[in-house]
Amino acid sequence: MTSQALAWLVQLARSILRVLLAVAFLVELAHAGPALELAIGTGRLALPLAERGVEVHGIDASEAMVARLRSKSGGERIPVTIGDFADVPIEGRYALVYVVFNTLFALQTHDQVWLGAARHHPVEQRVESQHVLLSEQGIRFYPVQIRYAYPSELDLMARLAGLQLRARFGGWRREPFTAASAMHVSVYERADPTKPL
Ligand SMILES: C[S@@+](CC[C@H](N)C(=O)[O-])C[C@H]1O[C@@H](n2cnc3c(N)ncnc32)[C@H](O)[C@@H]1O
To answer: How far apart are alpha carbons 16 and 19 in whole angstroms?
Structure first.
């Protein structure tokens, strides 16, 4: 096995472990559900969550991503609303609303390769990146623009939306969140459960 193939396998094993840990964490929070995933994509987390008995609904802006979700076993049973999750009106109440970020664009598969380059603007908290997919179908470009927020900024936005921080961890295993944490898992709850959001 080449070192490149070995590195790919390690990356794959890590991403599978991350999904298992995330699903275990979310199942516990969702109780009996239902749960709503913002930017559900192809159901990387939603499908295993649904398999664990949680009723999952989703929102996603991309018809193509949702078509891939639909093509997977169990994917046709997950209600998905197409649109921007910042705008889409959703009826009903959810025991859990969650959004997660993954490294899909960095993954390589046997019949396609993703290449990527990014520029970081630390003052504006923006990352501009260009992803190129090389496959038998040809070459496609996927420009991505992300404006990220620090945890304190997220807490402020949550407060403005009527939420408060219930817990923050440094990982899906509920590790303490410290200055050395490479990620955060933040759980928000309604500040006043008697008031509508
Ligand atoms: C990297 S995928 C992640 C999918 C899934 N959450 C996961 O962890 O596998 C990002 C997804 O977010 C969706 N997305 C990005 N911005 C969005 C927005 N503002 N509203 C709805 N969907 C969005 C994209 O269409 C894509 O399906």
So the answer is: 5
CB burial of 180-196 (b: ≥16 within 10 Å; e: otherwise) equals eeeeebeebeeeeeeee
Domain ranges of the chain: 1-108, 110-145, 149-197
Ligand 1, from 62, 90, 99: best to mutate by most atoms within 8 Å of Cβ? 62
d(CA 25, CA 59): 20
Atom of ligand 1 minimally distant from the CA of 104: 1
Question: To which H or E segment does residue 127 belong?
Answer: strand 126-135
197 residues of the chain, pLDDT tens digit each = 788 888 889 999 998 998 999 999 999 999 877 999 988 999 999 999 999 999 999 998 889 999 999 999 999 999 999 988 777 778 878 889 888 864 333 333 446 666 667 788 888 888 888 877 777 788 888 888 888 889 999 999 999 999 999 999 999 999 999 999 999 999 999 998 887 76
Q: Which CATH architecture has domain 1-108?
A: 3-Layer(aba) Sandwich (3.40)
In terms of pTM, does the model score above 0.85? no
The number of the ligand 1 atom at minimal distance from the alpha carbon of 99 is 6
> Does ligand 1 come within 6 angstroms of the Cβ of 18?
no
